[in-house]
Amino acid sequence: TTLTNSLTSTSTTSASTSTSTSTSTAVLVTSYGVFRPGLPLWAIILIVVGVLIICVCFVGTVVLARRRIQALRAEVIEKDKEKAIRSGLGNSRYYDLPGRRTEWEVERKFVSIDFTHKLGEGAFGSVLLENADAQAEFNFRSEIDLMKMIGYHERIVNMLACVTLSDPILLICEYCINGDLLNFMRKRRKFMFEHPEETDETKIITVQKQLMFAIQIAYGLEYLSSQGFIHRDIAARNIMVDHQESCKIGDFGLARLLGEENQTYQAKGGKLPLMWMPPEAIDKCAFSTASDVWSFGVLLFEIVTLGGSPYAEWPATELLDRLKRGERMERPDNCSEMLYEVMRNCWSEMPSNRPNFTELRKELGSLLEDINEDTTYYLKLNDQAHYYILDSSS
Which positions, given as ranges, span the membrane (predicted)? Predict the structure, then answer.
């Protein structure tokens, strides 16, 4: 019995020792777990590959799901756009919910309109507009929404109120009694042709008055650009003249919000003011603050010539090619070398080389300060100048 117990104890001890030794040398520890003795290498590799495949499939599923969600979201937004156009809700990003009254909204009963008196025309047609189609109404609502965002400035034709909860939609703005700058200047120019010796400044336009117009407009455009807006239709016909004969920027039908000064708005064509546009806008429909600067240079030409037609002798079909070759309008009569240099800087081929509106306002201010008794104060007009050819009012 003693011998048997001894052998059993020895056997148990040996087995225990053997097991302990086997366990300490055969365990394989990896980042994927612990593999026990007897697991072949091919099985380990198969497990690792399987785990990798599962991870890749999971990531792929997540990516595809996100793309699908984005596609569905875009589809919903597009449908909302179409619905907005059909229902006349306005801008696809900024519009009031139906029945929602804002601080701009006034009741129709408080608005009195003289439909027999047409004030003018803008980018979307007459100021008095009836029976507009869905797209025209969409554009008009977008203009109203944009004017709400622009805010108040003394050199802008400011929005006062609107009626958008029922038809017809109304945009109520400041009234400038002297109309647009183009016709204002042409009427004064006609009088000056007929009375060349007249010095009454209530009937004529002087060099000082021209520079005042330019500075006021530059001031308004400086504000617009600082708020991230581009106008895209800077021209004398869209500048209004108030009761004090001061200028205000109007007609925001083509205006857009860029957000950042150096951004570019890519238009999709449409009705655009060709003769006031820079090469990059004519060629690629690319608009920016720099394109507004170019247009301002053309507006300076209009101011100096009291409403003369830009590029009067250039066929429209040749405009882009000639501008790309570096051709520019010649210095008009009654335009100083310094003012013409300001124009030419606005017409730099590279948008980045054009001055900003703050610089333009300061340069024009310096020119105004330099006017003295020795400066030619009164304009001497030449009614045979080529830039008056297309102007029937002269």
Answer: 41-65
